[in-house]
Design a protein that fits this description.
Elements (H helix, E strand, L loop, with lengths): L17 H9 L13 H15 L11 H8 L3 H14 L2 E4 L3 E4 L3
Antiparallel strand pairs: 1-2
Helix pairs in contact: 2-4, 3-4
Length: 106
C-alpha cells in the first residue's frame, strides 16, 4: 500500500498595489507613497496628524474610538481605519489590540 506524500502548503502571494509595483520595478522599496489629498482617508489622516502636532492628543494619550471618529468625520469605519493605519506606519500612532489607539511618544 502506497503512503500519500505530504505536500508543502501553498502560500498565496500578496498582491501589490500599483505604486508598490512601480517601486519594485525601480529596485528600491524605500519610502511610502504619499497620500493624495483627494481621498477621504487622506483628509482624515491629515486632520488627525494636525491634532497630534497641535497637542490635542498629547503623547501616550488615547485617540477617540473608531466609532467616535466615524461620526465626527462623517465617513465609514474602513476610511478611518485606513487613516489610522497610515499614521501607525508613520509612527505617530500606536495601536493596541482590545484597548484602542494612542498617540506615540516621540
Amino acid at each position: 500500500m502506497n503512503k500519500p506524500t505530504k505536500r508543502a502548503p501553498r502560500t498565496r502571494a500578496r498582491r501589490c498595489s500599483k505604486p508598490e509595483r512601480q517601486l519594485l520595478r525601480l529596485g528600491a522599496y524605500a519610502a511610502p507613497v504619499t497620500v493624495a489629498r483627494s481621498y477621504l482617508y487622506g483628509d482624515a489622516a491629515v486632520e488627525l496628524r494636525r491634532r497630534i502636532a497641535a497637542g490635542v492628543y498629547p503623547q501616550h494619550s488615547k485617540i477617540p474610538s473608531l466609532s467616535d471618529l466615524t461620526r465626527e468625520f462623517k465617513v465609514s469605519a474602513i476610511t478611518v481605519r485606513r487613516a489610522l493605519h497610515e499614521l501607525m506606519y508613520e509612527g505617530l500612532v500606536v495601536g493596541h489590540c482590545g484597548i484602542g489607539s494612542s498617540a506615540a511618544g516621540v
